[in-house]
Amino acid sequence: MMHTLGAGRAIFSPAGYVIHALGLGEYVDPTTASTTAFLDIATRTWSHEVCAAVGVDPERHLPTIAQGEVGTYKGIPIILAPGDAATTALGIGHEHVYMGTTGWYARITKDVTEHRPEKHTLALGKDEFLTIAAVQQAGAARDEALRLFPVDGPLPREKSGVVAIPAFSGGRFPRRVDRPGATFVGVTAQTTPAHLHKAILEGVCLALSFDIDSGAEATHAPLPVVGGCTRSREWMQILSDVTGRTVHVLPDFDAGTVGALRFAGVDVPTPQATEEFTPRHSYAEEKERFARFLSLM
């Protein structure tokens, strides 16, 4: 994303480049700035300590941190919205789960009590943060389940009885796993390939649940979910069971564009949920076992 303008000056996003090309200066929004490692997220200014360590003069080399209207071009207001992760969150609501090839849980909050290396914390607006807990695999783990344990028909309605840590390509959250390799615990003579297939889907949801539980702040509001994996009704039921939350599946829509328009003051509604799933089983015991086994990896 970074583009050098000459004389060592850089910008960090396509939006920043467009603004520069329009002759309005060099800008970067706080959310995108959060991903550069130069930002002091507490003050939302460039870190003098980091800049000094790498020989960067923020006044000469880095763009101005700003968002909102940065100027006009031929009478048209030019508005710099937050980065794509933030506009996606703004387009959906204060929290959501994305489940595609990868997966994450994102929420907007005014209070970040701790900065964890397993999570992304980005600046959003003047006094808000966007936190993202990303797992290495979601749909990719399902691909492995289909390859290893192909299922002809529906998955078992009951819990799998197996705790799976689906770190086929390593893991990010709730604990970083650098060495690839999935783990299955609790396999018995009664375990079938369908149970192992379901255990992988449960494992993805269990990993996400460690932030959903803390991030929900005791709310019982429905949990919005987007992404290609929402087409699996069985998986959405598992997500509802594991998190103990009602899951609302949202239709395909460009959440980032909706969020950018909202940021610009345009009233664009979030689409209504197409399906709803409510909890049927408790996974409290499986979550405890998942955490215990993950700590050994």
UniProtKB/TrEMBL annotation:
Example GO molecular function: kinase activity
One annotated GO biological process: D-xylose metabolic process
InterPro entries on file: ATPase_NBD, Carb_kinase_FGGY_CS, FGGY_C, FGGY_Carb_Kinase
Gene3D superfamilies tied to this protein: 3.30.420.40
SUPFAM superfamilies: Actin-like ATPase domain
Pfam families: FGGY_C
Keywords assigned by UniProt, alphabetized: Carbohydrate metabolism, Kinase, Transferase, Xylose metabolism
Domain Carbohydrate kinase FGGY C-terminal: 144-266
Superkingdom of this protein's organism: Bacteria
Family: Belongs to the FGGY kinase family.
Annotated protein name in UniProt: Carbohydrate kinase FGGY C-terminal domain-containing protein
Upper taxonomic lineage: Bacteria, Bacillati, Actinomycetota, Actinomycetes, Mycobacteriales
